[in-house]
Amino acid sequence: MQMSDLEWLTAQILASTKYREIVPELVQRIGAQELDKRRSLKEAVKATKNKLHQVGGAYQQTKLNYEKSLELLRETACTEPVEVAVSNPNELRASCRQLMQAHASTRERLPILDEFYETIFANLPPIHTVLDLACGLNPLVYPWLPLPGDVQFTAVDIYSDMLTFIQEFFELTGVNGRTQQRDIIGNPPTEPYDLILLLKTLPCLEQVDKNAAVNLLDKLNGRYLLISYPAQSLGGRSKGMVENYTQQFEALANGRNWQVQRFEFATELAFLVQTNR
Ligand SMILES: C[S@@+](CC[C@H](N)C(=O)[O-])C[C@H]1O[C@@H](n2cnc3c(N)ncnc32)[C@H](O)[C@@H]1O
Description:
By secondary structure, this protein is of the alpha/beta class. The protein has two domains: 51 residues, Ubiquitin-associated (UBA) domain (Helicase, Ruva Protein, domain 3, Orthogonal Bundle); 209 residues, Rossmann fold (3-Layer(aba) Sandwich). A seven-stranded mixed β-sheet has the order 3-2-1-4-5-7-6. Helix 9 links the parallel strand 2 and strand 3. Helix 2 crosses helix 3, helix 4 packs antiparallel against helix 6 and helix 4 runs parallel beside helix 9. The protein is globular, with a radius of gyration of 19 Å. Bound molecules: S-adenosylmethionine.
């Protein structure tokens, strides 16, 4: 049987070193859009790669060496559960901080890290289940979070290698965590969670599908949602971003019967939502 253009495009992209770790459904979704728009298969392949770079690769300009990173974590976390490691938290936190530099999104959060999570958790009831959607390297923030030892932490992204690393981090530090490789545009999770993190993610999903944020929020089942936006672009410009994203959030929240608290940090704008679910 002959391969369709979409099958060929998807196979081509997944064969390349830079994209082979990405969840195939997202490659197919973007590939189908680009095949519709472009004049040739070659142009569609190039445009699909560009879009995948925009929504994923651009945040990882210096890709983490996962083997070395695990060695560093092994030295600091040993095999002790996170509560024990956190009784001497400085070393583990220092390693996590160093590793979080490798993803632009967590790197931007480093200057506000303590303040960010302290402020958010001061406004939450006890949390037992957390879903970190489009997580990047944010699960490495676990040693900062005031969560009970048995909290169930689920981390979702499109990169299988990054998720394998995060799963190893959970195991090394005794976190009751698991990872899922998933395209949350086509396959949004619907299970109930106490807290769902959507950190700097909605604008990224909307680059692929302008209805992605609305559709995702319709499906998610979180008692609390933490939705944030960058207060500066990847290039460091910030003009008007806070106002624009405030308007975007308000449009999304409109008609949803949410209770919302807004927090403006130096590098991030955050909305803590109680959903009444
Ligand atoms: C702006 S970064 C945010 C990372 C993290 N939430 C944080 O704030 O540190 C966007 C993340 O979304 C992931 N991503 C992009 N498209 C996705 C999709 N369709 N489904 C799941 N994750 C996606 C990327 O791999 C990247 O890690």
